[in-house]
Amino acid sequence: MSHRRRRAIILALAITPWNRVHLRQLADVIAILEADSSRTAIPTRQITNVRTNLKRSHIPPLRTADVITQTAESGLLEPGPKFEDTLRVLGTASQ
């Protein structure tokens, strides 16, 4: 969990009311937070780059570690079997 985007994926899943988030929504949120700006001020290309980076570099290791699961056809991310343990570790590390 050394990269901030991996931590952001886990924390976003933890705060969603339904414990699931679409990759597109997640990319929007991360791009907005990283730019410290509003959605309208961020170019679509930047959000696409974030989504591509998440898909290629950050989601696969989290899936491999069973932290998250992903529905291939919809891009829906959900907590995996080791999600709660990982979230606990993140909470402990921030204290």
What does this entry look like structurally?
The protein is mostly helical. It contains four helices and three strands, in the order αβααββα. The chain has one domain (4-88): Arc Repressor Mutant, subunit A. It has a three-stranded antiparallel β-sheet with strand order 1-3-2. β2 and β3 (76-79) form a beta hairpin. The longest helix is centred in the middle third of the chain and has 21 residues, at 44-64. The chain starts with a helix and ends with a helix.
Strand content: 5-15%
- Give helix and strand order, one letter per element, not per position: HEHHEEH
Alpha carbon gap, first and last residue: 16 Å
Helix percent reads 55-70%
Rounded average pLDDT: 91
Number of strands: 3
Number of domains: 1
CATH class: Mainly Alpha
What value does the Rg take, in angstroms? 13 Å
> How would you sum up the major sheet?
3 strands, antiparallel
> Helix- and strand-based class?
mainly alpha
3D shape? globular
**Cross-sheet strand order for the largest sheet:** 1-3-2
CATH topology: Arc Repressor Mutant, subunit A
The gist of it:
This protein is mainly alpha-helical.
Break the fold down into its secondary structure elements and pairings.
Blueprint: H1 4-15, E1 21-22, H2 23-35, H3 44-64, E2 68-71, E3 76-79, H4 83-93
Antiparallel strand pairs: 1-3, 2-3
Helix pairs in contact: 1-4, 2-3
Brief descriptors of the model:
11% strand, 3-stranded antiparallel beta sheet, 4 helices, 60% helix, globular, Arc Repressor Mutant, subunit A
